[in-house]
Amino acid sequence: MNDMEMSDRSSAGAPFSPAPVPGGRFGGMPRWPRMGRAVRLVWAGAAVMGMAAGSWAQHGHLNTGATGTSQGDSLMFANGHLFAAESGYVKDLPLADSGRFAGFFEGNITFTVLATTVDNGGPVPNAPASGSFVMAGIQSVSGPEGGRFGFWEAGSTVPTFEYGVGYDVAIPTGLWALSDASLGAGTPGADPYGHLHGRRFTATVPGLYEVSFRAFDLSGNGAGGGPIHTPSDVITIAFNAVPEPGVGTLLGMGTLGLLAMGWMRRGGRRQS
Length: 272
Hints:
With 272 residues, the chain is of the alpha+beta class. The chain is built from two helices and 13 strands; from the N terminus they run αβββββββββββββα.
């Protein structure tokens, strides 16, 4: 599970053209007019949002845990409130023009499973029970007409699972592992931890998608040889398939603009 990201929506103000004033650091080059306090705050806010969006895009992790460690306690998305569509979070999926995702809008949110052991960075509060094995699936997809939303396992050259807009089931038809079997997850008493890399989500048509996910325990280490945990509640996440640079990229460009404007203003004051 790899890469994941937080994209915030903002509205760009109308462009303005700086009025030239005499003098300036570079001879006859016009100086920028002074920005009002409100304008400076707007630009500063955009800069912070851009940096935050970039950080989340690279390091966003949706952590799977549980409400308890007893038989029948449900799984949960421990920090799901940060990713849920109702929070305002939107994951941008830019269009890939090369590589194995060429022609797809692609990106990722890293689904992890919280650890119970020191070896894996635990014990973490709300980690699932030892012996559980956590998997996830897509339960519904809404979005632009004709669109398809897919999950790609690491190294795959075609979608591992792909569902058309309108897909809506009670139990997902395909699941992928969140727990790491290579570390022993799923064996009796083992840490269910997982942090797997190289996966991607894709969309085929530009537009806004809302995709619902659910986590399941597929171990056989519970009562009667069944799972320990019951399934999680559904979490719905918004994905924006964008043919142009994502919101985080555009806000990052705004940050550079803010810095450049400040530099030019300081230069103008030194020459006045």
